[in-house]
Write a structure and sequence with these properties.
Distance between the termini: 100 Å
Radius of gyration: 34 Å
Structural class: mainly alpha
Strand order of the largest sheet: 2-1-3-4-5-6
Number of helices: 42
Helix content: 55-70%
Strand content: under 5%
Shape: elongated
Number of strands: 6
Length: about 800
């Protein structure tokens, strides 16, 4: 059928106009729309290439509803329109619709470009496995991959590659296809090798060597080639090699310089990061938003408030009227910098003045409030947020858990699920840590089951939180079983497990695990040393604890800080080695702070060293005059020594200064409900039955040798009153309630906010023998497992 000349002329005219619209990409939609309207008004019915151009313009202008309407009006859409829509849906993040168009397209219509569009869609939307699977299907369907195919599928491989063979297989396919000389393909292949090298399960040295060989043999290199290899070395922590490459090129690679600054910052080499920035300015390399955000982040992490303010001023001075895509990330970095430096008000002021904000901006301010523990402001701000993502919820859940508001954290977790957010592994980690704080084993086990059901059993964050939860709920064997069965562990996992063993009095096992960690090639960090020295302290392993403390700086280059000195002094004082503790204090490169004197005072209380205890207490009165623990420990020392007048003076000083003693509280979970007890409790609905039960139990305990140790009664009263007072301690009431209510033979797990009383510790040994049950008590410092008349601490606590 012959097309009339008038229609052909109109089609050519409309086609030319749309071609002009395509060239004006930022405003193509506003130009194309009147052309399309004129077609409709004139009665012209577009076909073929005209419709494809309209679909392309609408798709690229984010008018997918118009593009889809035109597509659906075509009786038999051709491969061009199908390919265009796949790319459009991919750009919008709608893989489901992209895949539907792909699947609905008959095999006879497909071509390599069509496959490339779908592979690219998967790659850009971070579904690397699906992209690789489709690449394999493409070859099975006898479509020949080209350089665009390999560029896309190698980009997908970089998302998921964990072993060298994954890169080698696609490398072979590239060579066989004859595209091994194409610069874009080689760049993508190098990127795959360097990203795979960063995988924990890969041999980074051999993979980086292969990436280096490919780079050296490239017939043509562009800026991306240099940037990829330099950033690859940065990501694999070989900053010397990265610097060598950077110095070896005359190209002004802003991205590579930015990567170097970020690399130094990640390693904590802040001076080197600042020097790199200085050289960048001297070399007249164009600074972009990534440069500013990287350097501002360095200032935030290094605590360089003055430098950060200078960077703020420099940005305002050198970047006049920044575009929104530049201003927003820099402002977000500045907000982070100011709240990390404790200037939340300035951070909020910047936020309020931002012309445009994204969800990142809102989440950063929320993090700021949470991190400075302004939870009322955080909750108010959270409720004001126009939209929330899973990160917003994680910030609130984790923040509340970390500062001890565990019940509220769990409420936020449940509220998050009710609002339709599927919990991720980090959200689970926050909720699980809340169970650790509460000592809620049953709820923690339920969350563990959900973690498995959602497929996060391999997650490091969830796994590490579960180790801590089981350990802090008194089930250290379950924590250890989880640890040895985790598919992948990191330094946090090792530290958590070492800490767990130490808290449960298994110092020798903690040391063995620490040595095993060293054999695995994992270098200990400051936390590792804190956990292993604490484990030695709890178990009385003085020689071993001193060895690890001495090795920190001499062997591993970790400088001991005040916390480490406090742990080693605690270790020595618990063992009664006060002269050695004083020598350590005198050797410190700084003046002893509150943690040091607190460790010394605690040791003096254990061994009754009143003179040194008075000295420590006096220093603590100067440093922390409102801290109740100092007054309580000193008065308890006087009481044990029978110095009642001195004890009374300390109590009077406490009252005069308005210092309130934190009341001892113990709690136990029975039938999904937490039951709390205070000393001399009279409020629990079953308190009379508890006292009656305890009275009968003590009679049985006396038959096998139990005698109440009245020296732990810190009041000058008659002997019979002292014994009565001991019987009303909160931990005894909680344990007795557990005996009464838990199934026969079940372990009784009790939690206390303060250190367990000495008489209660002795009584629980007798109780465990009389009743024939295990009793687990978590106090403010550690765990005690009572079985058959013995405690796991070996009475060293």
């Amino acid at each position: 059928m012959t097309i009339p000349d008038s229609i052909r002329t109109a089609a050519n005219r409309y086609g030319s106009l749309l071609q002009i619209c395509c060239l004006q990409s930022p405003i193509s939609y506003s130009l194309a729309r009147p052309v399309h309207a004129h077609m409709i008004a004139s009665g012209f019915q577009p076909r073929g290439h005209i419709l494809n151009r309209l679909i392309d313009i609408y798709s690229k202008s984010s008018k997918l509803n118009y593009a889809r309407y035109l597509f659906d009006e075509i009786p038999q859409p051709d491969i061009v329109s199908r390919t265009t829509l796949i790319a459009a849906y991919s750009a919008a993040g709608d893989l489901k619709l992209s895949r539907k168009i792909f699947s609905d397209t008959p095999l006879r219509m497909r071509d390599s470009v069509f496959y490339n569009a779908m592979i690219t869609a998967y790659s850009h939307n971070h579904d690397g496995h699906a992209a690789i699977e489709l690449f394999c299907d493409m070859q099975r369907d006898n479509f020949r991959p080209d350089n665009y195919t390999f560029t896309s599928v190698l980009g997908a491989l970089a998302l998921v590659a964990e072993k060298e063979k994954h890169c080698q297989q696609l490398h072979c396919a590239v060579v066989k296809s004859g595209t091994g000389f194409v610069t874009s393909v080689l760049n993508a292949l190098i990127s795959s090798y360097v990203k795979c090298a960063a995988s924990p399960s890969a041999q980074s040295s051999s993979l980086m060597a292969e990436a280096r060989r490919l780079f050296d043999e490239m017939p043509n290199r562009d800026e991306l080639s240099w940037t990829t290899i330099i950033t690859g070395y940065v990501k694999n922590n070989d900053l010397d090699a990265a610097k060598e490459f950077l110095n070896g090129t005359s190209k002004k690679l802003g991205v590579a310089w930015n990567a170097m600054i970020s690399g130094y910052a990640h390693r904590g080499l802040y001076l080197e990061a600042f020097e790199m920035f200085r050289k960048m300015i001297m070399s007249k390399i164009q600074l972009d938003e990534f440069t500013f955000t990287s350097v501002i982040s360095v200032c935030a992490n290094a605590g360089c408030f003055r430098h950060g303010k200078e960077m703020h001023a420099y940005f305002l001075k050198t970047v006049a009227n920044p575009a929104p895509d530049v201003a927003m990330p820099v402002n977000n970095a500045l907000i982070t910098f100011y709240w990390k430096c404790g200037k939340v008000d300035i951070a909020r002021e910047i936020f309020n003045k931002m012309p445009e904000r994204d969800l990142v901006s809102w989440n950063i301010i929320l993090s700021g409030y949470v991190n400075v523990r302004c939870m009322d402001e955080a909750k108010s701000f959270f409720n004001e947020m126009p939209e929330k993502n899973i990160l917003s919820w994680i910030i609130m859940i984790s923040g509340l858990a970390q500062i001890g508001f565990a019940e509220e954290a769990l409420k936020f977790f449940n509220r998050m699920k009710l609002q339709g957010f599927e919990p991720c592994d980090y959200a689970f980690a926050g909720a699980i840590i809340s169970c650790s704080v509460l000592g809620s084993l049953k709820h923690g086990r339920q969350l563990h089951a959900q973690v498995v059901r959602y497929g996060y059993e391999s997650s490091l964050s969830a796994g590490n939180a579960l180790i801590t939860m089981y350990a802090r709920c008194g089930v250290v064997d379950a924590a250890h079983c989880l640890f040895i069965n985790m598919p992948c562990v990191d330094a946090i996992s090792w530290n958590a497990m070492i800490a767990a063993l130490g808290q449960h009095g298994q110092g020798t096992q903690a040391i063995e695990l620490f040595e095993e960690m060293l054999k695995e090639g994992i270098l200990p960090d400051r936390i590792s040393f804190l956990t292993v020295i604490s484990a030695c302290s709890h178990a009385g392993l003085v020689k071993e604890g001193r060895k690890y403390f001495d090795s920190m700086h001499n062997v591993y280059g970790v400088t001991p800080d005040e916390e480490h000195y406090a742990r080693i002094i605690d270790l020595l004082c618990r063992a009664g080695k006060f002269s050695e503790a004083k020598e350590v204090m005198e050797s410190m490169p700084f003046e002893p702070g509150a943690p040091i004197w607190e460790a010394l005072l605690a040791g003096c209380r254990i061994h009754g060293n009143i003179d040194l205890g008075i000295e420590a207490a006096e220093r603590l009165f100067e440093l922390k005059p409102q801290h109740d623990g100092t007054y309580v420990l000193l008065s308890n020392m006087y009481a044990v020594a029978g110095q009642w007048n001195d004890m009374a003076k300390v109590r009077k000083l406490m009252r005069d200064r308005g210092v309130k003693k934190e009341p001892g509280c113990s709690w136990i979970e029975v039938e999904n409900k937490v039951h709390s007890f205070l000393v001399g409790d009279a409020n629990h609905p079953e308190v009379r039955q508890i006292y009656n039960y305890l009275e009968q139990l003590v009679l049985e305990m006396r038959k096998i040798g139990y005698v109440p140790d009245t020296k732990y009664v810190l009041h000058d009263v008659e002997s019979d009153l002292k014994e009565h007072e001991l019987s009303t301690h909160s931990e005894k009431l909680a344990v007795a309630y557990g005996f009464m209510k838990l199934p026969h033979g079940a372990t009784v797990r009790v939690f206390k906010n303060l250190r367990i009383c000495g008489d209660c510790h002795n009584a629980f040994k007798f109780m465990s023998k009389v009743v024939g049950r295990e009793i687990v008590v978590r106090d403010g410092k550690r765990f005690h497992h009572f079985r058959d008349g013995k405690c796991s601490c070996g009475d060293y606590w």
